[in-house]
Design a protein that fits this description.
380 residues, Transcription Regulator spoIIAA, 2 domains, 13 helices, 4 strands, 72% helix
Length: 380
């Protein structure tokens, strides 16, 4: 029977004796490590004798354990003497000690600092990643488009109940927050405009500023940002949770199309709800501006409406609302796409929900800038 490595301790007068016996090899390391961590003479600056006469075999792993033990005891202020070791064991211990000392004293390689190259590398990596994400999002848009065309050929497959449910969630339930923020934005715009225009005696033109700003840009843009943060994140979280619970895999197993069941009802609901929310936000923002104009500039509601009629027309409202379907597609597409990318962990749901909101708002603002340049070029 092969004797496993062991370590015994005893006091011999004023000297503490550690006796190592058996085979100190790789197979014994796991059992010896906890025992060596507990080795402590319990006295300050004790004299320790490490007796290796009972050791039958030693390999590199065992020699490293002994070297660490000796270094720890000496680091605590104890004097350690090694006795009884055979010549071959002494040679191995010396080689291990030399290797450890060389590794500790060897200078660590220092990476050269190249800020421009590092910056260029990060920018390139981010650009490539963004390009791949954009291509993947375009591929998902193609998949949704094909599924929608297939649904048009067979309208009986359209499920009205999920559509009505999501229409309520993204439309009706969002009226409160959209109305409150739109009213406050109208108040702020009217106050800031009035504060500047009244210096030139042009108080009435605050109505022009408010009408054009809200109907063309601010109303639908703020509505889309609110919906992206509220409904886009909800799309990602809902689909992502279903992905974690393997419900989407179960759908595919049953021969059901997750895009048809989960993505299209949400996208169609947002396509209907966002233009209506945009009109609602425009009305409430103008109402907030009218209240501020009445209280700050003494412009009556009748004067406000007459000046608004002269300042804006149906085309101004159209310029703002034509963006709504595009924003709706982008928000729902990003929200559902990020939800489909969720892996099997709750952390992934949170990360991709945050990512969904950031990307949706970014794309909404980019598209709004694109529309502004396009309409300016077309003279609209």
């Amino acid at each position: 029977m092969v004797e496993r490595g062991s370590l015994s301790t005893a006091w011999a007068g004023q000297q503490w004796v550690l006796s190592a016996a058996g085979r100190w090899d790789l197979g014994a390391v796991q059992g010896l490590e906890p025992q060596l961590r507990r080795v402590d003479p319990g006295r300050a600056a004790a004299s320790i004798c490490l007796d290796l006469s009972g050791m039958t075999a030693l390999d590199t792993a065992g020699a490293l354990l002994i070297d660490r033990l000796i270094a720890r005891l000496r680091g605590q202020g104890h004097s350690v003497a090694v006795v009884g070791a055979r010549d071959d064991l002494c040679t191995l211990l010396k080689e291990v000690r030399r290797a450890v000392a060389a590794a500790v004293s060897a200078p660590q390689p220092v990476e050269p600092v190249r800020p421009f190259r590092d910056l260029l590398e990060r920018v390139g990596h981010a650009t490539v990643t963004a390009g791949r994400e954009g291509l993947a999002l375009l591929g998902f848009l193609g998949l949704v488009t094909v599924t929608a065309l297939r649904l048009l050929r067979r309208p009986g497959r359209f499920r009205a109940r999920p559509f009505a449910f999501h229409l309520e969630q993204v439309g009706l339930n969002a009226l409160g927050i959209v109305g409150l923020l739109s009213f406050l934005i109208g108040v702020v715009l009217a106050y800031q405009g009035a504060d500047q225009l009244r210096r030139f005696g042009a108080d009435i033109f605050v109505v022009n500023l408010l009408g054009i700003g809200v109907l063309r840009e601010i109303g639908i843009l703020m509505t889309a940002i609110i919906v992206a943060g509220r409904s886009g994140s909800a799309f990602t979280a809902q689909i992502g949770t279903m992905k974690v619970n393997q419900e989407i895999d179960a759908m595919r197993t049953l021969g059901l199309d997750p895009v048809e069941l989960l993505v299209l009802p949400r996208m169609l609901a947002l396509l209907v709800a966002l233009p209506l929310l945009g009109v609602y936000a425009d009305i409430v923002a103008l109402a907030g501006g009218a209240v501020m104009a009445y209280g700050y500039l003494d412009i009556t509601f009748g004067q406000f409406l007459r000046q608004l009629q002269m300042a804006v027309g149906a085309g101004t409202l159209f310029v703002g609302l034509v963006k709504a379907p595009v924003f709706a597609v982008v928000i729902s597409l990003v929200g559902c796409y990020e939800g489909m990318r969720v892996t099997g962990s709750a952390e992934s749901v949170g990360l991709l929900t945050t990512r969904s909101v950031v990307i949706s708002i970014f794309l909404v603002i980019v598209l709004d800038a694109f529309f502004s340049i396009l309409f300016s070029y077309l003279g609209v």
